[in-house]
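worker-03 picked up job from queue 'complexes'. Input manifest follows; two sequence lines, order preserved.
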Amino acid sequence: MAIKVGIVGIGHTRFGNSSEYDLADVMAYAATDALQDAGFLERRREIDQVVVGNMASGMFCHQSGVASSLISRMDMEPVPAELVENGPASGASAIKIGYMAVASGMADIVLVVGGEIMRKVSGWEATDLVATILHSEAEYDMGLTLPAFGGMFTRLYMEKYGLTERDLALLAVKNHRNGAKNMYAHIQAPCTIEAIADGPEAAVVNTYVAEPLRMYSTCPVSDGAAALLLVNMDSPKVRDFKKKPIRIAGIASATDTHCVHNRKDPLRLEAVRLAAEKAYKMADLGPKDISFAELHDAFSILELAISEEVGFFERGKSFLAVRKGETDIDGRLPINTSGGLKSKGHPVGATGVSQAVELVRQLRGEAEEGRQVRNPKYGMSVNFGGFGNNVVALICAKD
Amino acid sequence: MAIDEMEKKLRPPEIPLKPYPPKVITLASGEKMVVREARREETGILLGTIYPLIGVPSDFYDIVAARMYAEVLGWYRYRVANEFVLVGVIDGVIAGIVNSRHVSSKLGMSLHTLAIKRGLRVGAQLFAAKMENHIDVLGEEEVYIVAESPNGFKRWMIEYQLEDRSSQYPEVRSELGGVPTYVLTRKLWDAVREVKCTGTRPVPEKDLKSAEKLIMPSEYVQIPGFKR
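worker-03 finished. Artifact:
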């Protein structure tokens, strides 16, 4: 019988512009928040392992060794600490490594912290630095960036399934509505369909970023950090925490070709499908059991494509569900209740951990009024590395 | 010499400017921003709006606010020739201010762009309105533009693909201290107008009325904790 792993503490900074602060300080803020939430701040040196998720502090902040730095900021020596890097899925990969440490019996209590400061550089430089996760010769050197892939993927999807730009705008309206109520979101402002799609000024107000992707189909560049405290639920130590654990029912990852052009069908996100299948199997659940989900909408099209790959909707049909409001907070399957990457923001190394924080907040019933899902039992998140080449799926359960 | 005679000597010669026709833009939030010319008698409200930002060093708000304060005061006191000031107004509250100078029938001199409300491209819309006034309303052929912040450089020099005329210094120079001068030509404006400039005219009476009396912002995201 495998060891059960639960989340007993969550922490989060408000995403946005923290470029005046040091990355380790921002991470320490989220970590402190998580330890306080768990009632374990004073006993933090009893933690067995710290796992840090970060994508590119070396490039964004000219800073390395952030795990060690975090330990010192937290006054936690001699707790072991290591860094995990998996591009924009670094956060969820850090959770997975933390999970493995507890599930293997190596550790009973693990602190997972994901963080990124991206706004020390300009938005354009940030786009360039994130693009270094692409294949250096076949993609990056050809001038490709992640928004360029997002645009091409969107165009293909539109041609194949009949998606419109207005459908993408509907996703932005939904996610901004949720994000506006999320105290951690970068952009806490709703947007209207008239302003970004239907009105006479919409084409300029919601300008193209990588046609057909517009500004409101693309996540902002954000700074921030999030943290989780994991615990062995079978250990007597589980009683030392203030809050009842939210169980990690399934966590899995999968990879796909580094070069997108090597995929048989560029519209298929095989790593998403495989990671989700493995997570479902581990949790002994299926897509119909999921109460709500946080999906990696760095570009709005990804919310749709991922929701189909994980089995929530038939291929090419997810945007029809969005039109009907099925993914709204009070819909059949709320998606991106936090505002998603679009509204909450996307500090790349933090995102996977932030998604997990949202799962816990919803499952505990601690989300803000107006964006709390009714009686959720299982929450799922998908954190997307590269352009779908290294993906982590997580399922959390309220037992 | 009578004081008013002296004052006449101090004032620059003015070229009567064609008025900028107001327009309304629905921002992404759904809020209606009326863009209209500010009136000289509104100077007090403009200065009161600009003043708190003089103490904000991030994003170079301090230098932009300080210079705009002086320019608007100069306009009020008749010490700047042919200046115009446009305001973006949401429900009466000033969301942003831009100012500029009409140098001649061929040339405009862009002064400053101050976005007070952030995250809704208020600054971008007001800058575009300013360029619209220079080229489409006042009929100039070129506008000299400089950037005082990386954000400004990205928004104007790069996104508008302005012509870098810094090598032609001192023949081509902005009035803002000899910094590298970039130029928006009519040809460049024609290429970007459709994607950069928007707004509905005429402004519905209700919206126009809402922007009639300017209100100073009570809060600034740039100054946490500020309350007026």
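worker-03 released lock.
The first helix of chain A runs from residue 23 to 38.
Chain A touches chain B at residues 20, 122-124, 187, 189-192, 194-196, 199-208, 216 (CB under 8 Å).
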